[in-house]
Amino acid sequence: QSMDSTLHYIHNDSDLSTNSSFSPEEERKSKVQDVVPQALLDQYLSMTDPSRAQTVDTEIAKHCAYSLPGVALTLGRQNWHCLKDTYETLASDMQWKVRRTLAFSIHELAVILGDQLTAGDLVPVFNGFLKDLDEVRIGVLKHLHDFLKLLHVDKRREYLYQLQEFLVTDNSRNWRFRAELAEQLILLLDLYSARDIYDYLRPIAFSLCADKVSSVRWISYKLVSEMVKKLYMASTPTFVEDLMNELVEKFCRCHKWSGRQTFVFICQ
């Protein structure tokens, strides 16, 4: 009885404050499912109301964001319509910790939802996270390969133009960000063609090889060597020849000893 009265209060409150074009009855029907008790789902959805989070508990939205992939898995992709509005509300939450939590799990949610729902509902959120604070961006960066491999080839190619943006951070001392980018680029080599690797990933790799932090440079040496291997296996030999000529010119014949040392490490 206590639960029923609480839910009744929550629904009445949310119905009054909704900006949706649906009537309260249509709004309620859009969130009905038969996997778990409806009252339990309603209680969960009500916790993500921003006004409620401010008055009850500032951490509640973060906990809801953390649990959302589990809720989505339990309900199944056929009931994603029950969670879609809640997910978008959390993704635009004022607290960066809430958005960061979702950024770290968006690749898991993509696996649960499948291609079509990911392209329609998750990609716009993913794009928003790419332009967010570094604390949020690191979440999508750490699982960049896991997310992009689930997209169609054409959609995946669109992100080639944005990879360069990961070199720029709010704090230039945040070298772990660039180290993570190098790690992800190694994995991304399998997702793109030889021309895409040469045109888009190669300039980033060379930039990382000249990083001020040694840890970033070490990972970058592995990235370049893997790039040589990938281009060597490609059907067009021009790319690997051009890449190796560039390595010789830029590093092997460098007037600084550090550049020549870079060449040796890449060969190693």
From TrEMBL:
Question: Which Gene Ontology MF annotations are present?
Answer: protein phosphatase regulator activity
* Record carries keyword Repeat: yes
Asked if the Swiss-Prot or TrEMBL record annotates the protein with the keyword Repeat, the reply is yes
The family database entries (InterPro entries) matched by this protein are listed as: ARM-like, ARM-type_fold, PP2A_Regulatory_Subunit_A
Key words, A-Z: Repeat
Of the GO CC terms on this record, one is: cytoplasm
Write down the superkingdom of origin: Eukaryota
Q: Where is this region: Disordered?
A: 11-32
Q: What is this protein called?
A: PP4R1 phosphatase
